[in-house]
Amino acid sequence: MEIFIRPAGPVDAEDIARVQRISWAATYARQLSPESLARVETAWDARHWRRSLERTDDRVISLVLEGADEGVVGFGVAGPRRGGRDPILRAYDGEIYLLYLLPTFQRRGHGVRLMAAMARVLRARSMESALVWALSSNRSAVGFYQHLSGSILMQVRKPFFGESVNEIALGWRDLRILASMTPTVRE
Ligand SMILES: CC(C)(COP(=O)(O)OP(=O)(O)OC[C@H]1O[C@@H](n2cnc3c(N)ncnc32)[C@H](O)[C@@H]1OP(=O)(O)O)[C@@H](O)C(=O)NCCC(=O)NCCS
Predict the structure, then answer these.
(1) Which of 3-12, 27-36, 56-65 has the highest average model confidence (pLDDT)?
(2) Cα 85 to middle of ligand 1, angstroms
(3) In 3-state terms, what secondary structure has residue 185?
(4) Ligand 1 pocket check for 9: Cβ under 6 Å
(5) Residue 93: pLDDT above 90?
(6) Domain membership flag for residue 85
(7) How many domains does the chain have?
(8) What residue numbers bound the domain in which 93 lies?
């Protein structure tokens, strides 16, 4: 079974929305209210993704993880860091915006592959550092980023689809190590 990473385009909108919906439900069912999950689903539907993937911003990159038989099983989106005032965050050029895999493709090495691919693309666009935001309650994602040597930068309370949630920022000051990771993929 071979799973490839490639740049995403508008044609992938339906698949990305599907992967996000399934992965969100599995990840956040116990962390967010059903109302918030429903609001997220509506906001990030295929139409949203089509519009977003049609936008031509050379610094934002969307990648999909795809198998010939499996179709799209994961995706990641990265680009310039959003939000500019905090002095700690300002030390980081780039940001991993989203990273979601279908549950059956998690813990097999694909998350690292996508992180490494995004780090390479960010570097190719002159961003040498990056951060990521995760819900504090998403211990698995925070554990994953720490396993990849991400440092915890701060925790803040933020509004999120009608709820107030704690989010943690983790950062990599030098993306070279992340960019050079080549994990062994487990079948
Ligand atoms: C978080 C996510 C992207 C990680 O990807 P993944 O494919 O499951 O992780 P990998 O198999 O690539 O893991 C790579 C390494 O990190 C480690 N790791 C993974 N999850 C971990 C955790 N919770 N705690 C500690 N280490 C972890 C693995 O053990 C592995 O190390 P190894 O190769 O030395 O065994 C994926 O699980 C996912 O899509 N989760 C649901 C959605 C989500 O939470 N996204 C992030 C939102 S901010």
Answers:
(1) 3-12
(2) 30
(3) coil
(4) no
(5) yes
(6) yes
(7) 1
(8) 3-179
Single-letter amino acid, residue 82: R
Domain of 59, CATH number, reads 3.40.630.30
CA-106 nearest atom, ligand 1:
8
Give yes or no for a contact between 173 and 95, defined as CB atoms under 8 angstroms apart: no
Query: Distance between CA 116 and CA 164 in Å, rounded?
Result: 31
Amino acid at 137: S
Cβ-contact 49, 16 below 8 angstroms? yes
Atom of ligand 1 nearest to the CA of 186: 11
Residue 187 lies in a domain: no
Residue bearing the CA closest to ligand 1, atom 26 = 144
If pLDDT is split at 50, 70 and 90, which confidence band does 140 have?
Answer: very high
Asked if 62 and 77 touch (Cβ cutoff 8 Å), the reply is yes
For residue 74, which atom of ligand 1 is closest to its CA?
39
Does residue 106's CB lie within 6 angstroms of at least one atom of ligand 1? yes
